[in-house]
Specification:
It contains 15 helices and 27 strands. The chain is of the alpha/beta class. The strands form 6 sheets. Strands 2-1-11-10-12-13-14-15-16 form a 9-stranded mixed beta sheet, with helices on both faces. It starts with a helix and ends in a 12-residue tail after the last helix. Its EC number is 6.2.1.44.
């Protein structure tokens, strides 16, 4: 049986008095945590949440967020973690599309309540996560812990555990349906590949709405380790927490590692307990790697590759290969070998496997692969076939099974670890008066890996400027999706015979001198 709550019960059984969570001075044991989880679950049931219902969470990292991630499956409900960087219209869409019956929100996200007022038709309860006094009439999270504990309903296996929204190729984000099996198998892959154990202390510094962090959430719990939380990534607070909480494991994108190792106060902190950093979402720049190895020689660095649809781990690069010298050098640009519970292959346009060393589309199969996209059967059918998920990532595999990503077949940009689908940005820009045509592409960026770049053809007689476009975009989409650079042209965008914009042609000038079309 694969059940998310089994990992929590195991931790409480094997380490009842062992530390479970620490946040803002609050420290709890595993026995205290499981007691709180069962009571929160009891409160949710009393509020009318039933098995199969969806409950949204819009908040920064904290221990209560963690408790919700177990209280919801405890009563058979599904979590809907919402990206805290989204704009109000995007949040409104997710709440509507998921049919969430309740919303948990904190102070940092409370500014969304006014624009969302009367636009959350299915939401029956809004619960305030913070200790501060929230808006009048809202339930407070701690009040939920006073309810009688609920009995675990036994949600497991193919039952829906969560909807995790990812960008959409058509401009609308898709709810990835992940089951208990998906998330538990992924957690097992993490325990085996990353090495979580009962002595692990993991810092949640990446956002908890991201599965990159969620993968470790369930794995560390399963192993009986300990969770330390910071609200959001901030280099000094992260370094301080590593020092005071004796953190052993962390997950950062390369941009975060760069900010840490080059911070002027880095040397002030004792981070000798930090033994392992998992990084991903973009390749590690050689300069950042050299600095990290210089100032953190005791830390193992592991590159991971994955996606929401795979819950998310697909490949892991053994830390031995995160090196520039010696017998293991040469595979630093690889994203590693397949995780224990997965199977991968590289296929051609007919989805036939190609020889090693030949580029094609990466396909993944395993118990970690999603059930499908919520209420989107056509999109699901387009990527799932005979148990295989077709990723849309161009890759090749060498004769030892090391995977190298070389291109993105789907129109997606990865900037600072965040996925940005071009169609979402194009849809937003197209709503601006005066825009005749628009194409959004990813171009190389030294700091962010790639940046969102817009190419706009104004309507005849209309003059547009970058500031107007940016201001318009910020009202429509999350800040990280907004273009960081814009070109205007007075000639039509190049089109294929089928009438599609030739984005490869638009990208070509920006990627000259690069050996692959992604960064």
């Amino acid at each position: 049986m694969f059940a998310l709550t089994q990992g929590l019960r195991r931790a409480a059984q094997t380490k009842p008095d062992g530390p479970s969570t620490h946040f803002a001075g609050r420290r709890r044991t595993w026995q205290q945590t499981i007691d709180r989880v069962s009571r929160i679950a009891g409160a949710l049931f009393a509020l009318g949440v039933r098995p199969g219902d969806r409950v949204a969470i819009l908040a920064l990292n904290n221990d209560r967020y963690f408790e919700l991630m177990y209280a919801l499956p405890w009563i058979g409900a599904a979590m809907v973690p919402i990206n805290t960087r989204l704009a109000a219209p995007e949040i409104e869409y997710i709440l509507s599309d998921s049919g969430a019956v309740a919303l948990f929100i904190d102070t940092a996200m409370s500014h969304h309540l006014t624009p969302l007022e009367n636009k959350m038709a299915a939401v029956r309860e809004v619960v305030w996560l913070d200790d501060t006094s929230g808006p009048e009439g809202l339930l407070h999270f701690e009040d939920l812990t006073n309810y009688d504990p609920a009995v675990d309903v036994g949600a497991a296996n193919d039952d829906l555990a969560g909807l995790f929204y990812t960008g959409g190729t058509t401009g609308r984000s898709k709810g990835v349906m992940l089951t208990h099996t998906n998330l538990v198998v992924n957690a097992l892959n993490g325990v085996a590949g990353i090495g979580f154990n009962a002595d692990t202390t993991y810092i949640h510094s990446g956002p908890m709405f991201h599965l990159a962090d969620g993968a470790s959430t369930f794995g560390v719990t399963m192993a009986g380790g300990r969770h330390a939380f910071v609200p959001r990534f901030e280099p000094v607070e992260v370094l301080q927490t590593i020092q005071t909480e004796k953190v052993t494991h962390a997950q950062f994108v390369p941009t975060m590692i760069n900010m840490i190792v080059n911070h002027p106060r880095f040397a002030e902190f004792d981070i000798r307990t930090l033994a392992f950093i998992l990084y991903g979402a973009s390749p590690m720049p050689e300069g950042v790697l050299r600095k990290a190895m210089q100032v953190m020689p005791h830390v193992k660095l592991m590159h991971a590759y994955g996606m929401t649809e795979a819950a998310p781990i697909v490949t892991l690069l053994d830390p031995r290969y995160t090196t520039l010298d010696g017998p293991f050098a040469g595979r630093l640009k690889s994203c590693g070998q397949v995780a224990l519970g997965c199977e991968i292959k590289v296929v051609d346009a007919n989805r036939e496997e190609v020889p090693r060393g030949t580029s094609g589309e990466l396909a993944i199969r395993g118990a970690n692969i999603m059930k499908g996209y919520w209420n989107k059967p056509a999109e699901t059918e387009g990527v799932l076939k005979d148990g295989w998920y077709y990723s849309g990532d161009g890759a090749y595999m060498d004769d030892q099974g090391f995977v190298f990503i070389v291109d993105r077949l789907k129109d997606m940009i990865i900037s600072g670890g965040e996925n940005v689908y071009s169609a979402e940005v194009e849809n937003a820009i197209s709503l601006l008066a005066g825009v005749s045509e628009v194409a959004v592409i990813g171009v190389p960026d030294e700091r962010w890996g790639e940046r969102v770049h817009a190419i706009i053809v104004p309507k005849p007689g209309i003059t547009l400027n970058a500031d107007d476009v940016m201001e318009h975009c910020r009202d429509q989409i999350a800040g990280y999706k907004c273009p960081r650079s814009i070109d205007f042209r007075d000639t039509p965008l190049p089109l294929s015979g089928a009438g599609k914009v030739l984005k490869r042609e638009l990208r070509e000038p920006y990627w000259k001198g690069f050996t692959k079309a992604v960064n």
